[in-house]
Amino acid sequence: MKVNDCPGFPQFDYLFPPSRRYAFAITHRNGKPVMVCLAQLEAFDGLLWVGNGQHAGRISALSQPTISRAAHHVAKSLGLTLQKIRSEWHVTGETHQLAQERQHHQMARLAGTGNLRLEAGAISSRVLADPPLKPWILGRPDAINQPRSLALLQQRVIDAWICTSAQDLPSDLGETEVVELFRTPLQLVASSNHPLAKERALRPADLSQFASVALDCNWFPKSADHLKQHGLWRNPRRLNHYRSHHWVGRTADGHTLAYASPLMLASDPAITALDYDLGLEQSLALVVRKDLAKEPPIQALLEELRRRVVRLQPERASSLCAA
């Protein structure tokens, strides 16, 4: 069943063309058909993607109350429950029909009926995505929860993801493809007035008296384990989203150590690299679903990102992965 409006949501009628407003009938678990339109699903997934109505409004041109009402309409219609955990919405319930509709909606976006969704969170990946590449829209600029971004990609809520720390992805990614953009050594950094800033050939024992930044969660498991072997990653903070003053900004005390890629280091004159080899490389990569990897919009995105990598780091052009 299709109709050219969103039942109960006339405000969608002027924001979306008929091709994106049509409603689809879903059989609710009580056996009765319910109506959900694609515009409502877009609001629902937008809220899941960016975490709150204010940010969702920025990417959809809808008001926060409209997004909230549409998202709860979708959840109620499909018999789902929305639960907020660490500032992020999670869905519980039977999601089979939701997954089917997401797939149809994603293919429509790839065919040009709407904006494509690119996750490019904090730190290095955001540099590559700014300015945005049409027809792609960006989510939150402070996203750092990699398992969350991966789940959104696998569930077709987003269409592509620039992953800052691909070395921390699970070994078995199933139907997900990782295309490395470049790989570069992660550097130990501190403020320019840190006692170790002018020292050379530092050893682990030299670091032991200083605090070092860490997260209180397991979002970067392999990197965290490696840094712990150097006596680092010792002073965790709870971060739901990236905040500089809770990460590299902590080095301003002249005591705390942090870690940064060359892209971060070049953009922050307040920090300096220490003469210490972490033996850890950071891998930036474009992550997509395997069934979509050859789609023209995905290939065009990949080509543009490769061009941007060369412009940002010409001295590392040799590290650019071959097509």
Report the CATH superfamily of the domain at 187-279: Periplasmic binding protein-like II
Shape: elongated
Mean pLDDT: 85
Structural class: alpha/beta
Main sheet record: 5 strands, mixed
Order of helices and strands: HEEHHHEEHEHEHEEEHEHEEHEEH
The first-to-last residue Cα distance is: 43 Å
| Percentage of residues in helical conformation | 25-40%
Q: Uncertain spans, ≥5 residues at pLDDT below 50?
A: 314-323
Architecture of the domain at 187-279, CATH level 2? 3-Layer(aba) Sandwich
Strand order of the largest sheet: 6-5-7-14-8
Count helical runs: 11
The CATH class assignment of the domain at 187-279 is Alpha Beta
Strand content: 15-25%
Query: Can you tell me the CATH topology of the domain at 187-279?
Result: D-Maltodextrin-Binding Protein, domain 2
Radius of gyration: 22 Å
Number of strands: 14
